[in-house]
Amino acid sequence: MQHHRATSDHYDLRFEVDGVLVSWAVPKGPTMDPKARRSAFKVEDHPMEYFDFEGVIPRGQYGAGDVVVWDVGTWEPHGTDDPAAAIAAGSLHADVSGHKLKGRLVLVRRGGGGRGGDGGGGGSEPDGREAETGNAWLLLHKNDSFAIPGWQTEDHPLSVLSGRTSDQVRADPDRLWRSGVPAAEAAVELRHRGATPEELAALDDLGPQGTWAVFGRRLKVTNLDKVLFPPRGGEPPVTKRDLLRYTAQIGPTIVPYLAGRAMNLHRYPDGATEKGFWHKQIPARAPKWIDRWRNPEADPGETQVYMVVNEPATLVWAANFGALEWHPWTSLTDQPHQPTYALVDIDPGEATSWDQVLELARLHRTAFEHLDLVACPKVTGRRGIQVWVPIARGPSFDETRAWVEKLSRTVGAVVDDLVSWKWQKAERRGLARLDYTQNAVNKTLVAPYSPRPAPGAPVSMPIEWDELDDPSLRPDRWTVRDALERLHEKGDPFRRMLDSPQRLPRLS
Q1: Which of 56, 115, 121, 131 could bond to 173 as cystine, CB 3.0-4.6 Å?
Q2: Is residue 312 within 8 Å of 251, Cβ to Cβ?
Q3: What are phi and psi of 278, to 5 degrees?
């Protein structure tokens, strides 16, 4: 049974029957009180993959809301060996053995589909819509040895999987369910689950090179003791082994932001102090198991095949290849001309102080609050701040770029003495630039949690908006050495990117 806060708050009672979850929505929840009666509304069967789902269904999708696994256990039909036939006939007696619910539950279809019963205000489908007439049932608990008079659902709010409340799961979900894809692909893991201690120990045990088994793949890794990032402060330099360890631990957190997107790699084969090279197409030496996307709009005679990071092992391979920066496209490969992010890049000039960058970022914070838009900021790991705005697919890149330009001009007008534009005279180009031009196909900003080619291996770290007021905030504050600790302590602020498809409002 799942507690599901969609358009209306209800509980979903599910029985496994013939390989699917036969389901009822119960507005006031189940009961152990033999005198209580609960309205229940038959809804569509759910796939078995949904059995232990706990997390968030994004806005704009079927069943949008938060879900916790309120109870789980086993059951046996009573009085029949054909529960599907019993349900079709309109009466199911079920002996349940759960963590919270025990004893015999009875479901009886009401004639004519009327309501009545507990006066629960009407049943609801998982997306909050009223159940269709004829789907109305009654749920009760038999007066058996497990019955508890006066038992109330709300006295037992916690998930049996995580021990958390619905509010806690909504604020920091482990998983996301995408209603519009096959069930086997619908659940997206959000919580950090990096390489296991055994896999990391195996990396430590390797010599300068060898074969590393990680995430179910066997990767040939080389030059593990090579210094890729010079030291910062009193810290030791960062070797390729250090980078691979970080990538394997952070990979599962990053993959949801990369999956289904072409990836541009910024490769530094000789380390961060040397010249880098862009790889906008997948290297010929890449393993065959890495997902690829062929650009159908390539010029005649030109082949454009890009890497697509759909699993953490792909990112580990890229790091071993010397890719110190990871840049995903802002559109998905199935519709490359329809962005899913709008990008704001606060790019400081030579004469721009960090305090001035923060002032510009705070003005954007106010603008997004006024527009009631979800927008996710991150420090770049170098000098600036970027803001990613999740959007529903529909607008073209031209339209998105024009929207960001208008927003940037509005914000920039408030502090005109801090901002320059590319067409202005040279004497103003040392000021900050609000760069909206990255809103174009195959133009990118660095991915969240990606390393940057600088001493100490700083990372582009997602932050909360209120951290702009933290006097210790710096654009390169976090590195591959402490980014994971922050992730464990604070969670991932960028998760809102995954469940907030929005329409960009008209700017006056």
Answers
A1: 56
A2: yes
A3: -85, 135
> Which H or E run contains 110?
none
Radius of gyration of the chain (CA): 27
DSSP label of 234: T
Please give the Cα distance from 423 to 57 (Å, whole number): 44
As a residue count, the chain comes to: 508
Rounded Cα distance, 436 and 104, in Å: 62
DSSP letters, 295-355, are -TTPPTT---EEEE--SHHHHHHHHHTTEEEEEE-SB-TTSTTSBSEEEEEEE--TT--HH
Whole-number Cα distances in Å, 102 to 96, 122, 140 = 5, 26, 12
Q: Which of 391, 254, 385 is nearest to 332 (CA)?
A: 391
C-beta separation of 152 from 113 below 8 A:
no
Run of H or E residues at 3: strand 2-5
CB-based contacts of 24, cutoff 8 Å, min separation 6: 12, 13, 14, 40, 41, 42, 43, 107, 137, 139
Contact 264, 327 (CB under 8 A): yes
**Cα–Cα separations (whole angstroms), residue 203 to 10, 197, 251, 289, 477:** 47, 10, 16, 21, 27
DSSP character at residue 83: H
Predicted confidence (pLDDT) per residue in 386-434, tens digit: 999 999 999 999 999 999 999 999 998 888 888 876 545 544 456 778 8
Ranges assigned E (strand) in 83-216: 91-98, 102-109, 136-141, 175-177, 187-189, 210-214
* Closest listed residue to residue 448, CA positions, set 215, 277, 255: 255
Mean of per-residue pLDDT scores for the chain? 88
Across 82-86, 170-174, 175-179, 331-335, which has the greatest mean pLDDT? Answer: 82-86
Judge contact between 54 and 191, C-beta under 8 A: no
Tokens 């390489």 sit on residue: 195
pTM value > 0.85: no
Share of the chain above pLDDT 90, in %: 66
Can you tell me which residue has the tokens 């990396």?
A: 203
The pLDDT score that the predictor gives to residue 426 is 44
Helix (H, G, I), strand (E, B) or coil at 13: strand
Rounded to whole angstroms, the Cα distance separating 357 from 365 reads 12
Using DSSP bridges, classify how beta strands 419-420 and 432-435 pair: parallel, antiparallel or unpaired: parallel
Q: How far apart are CA 217 and CA 354, in angstroms?
A: 42
| Amino acid residing at 358 | L
Residues 77 and 178 sit within 8 Å (Cβ to Cβ): no
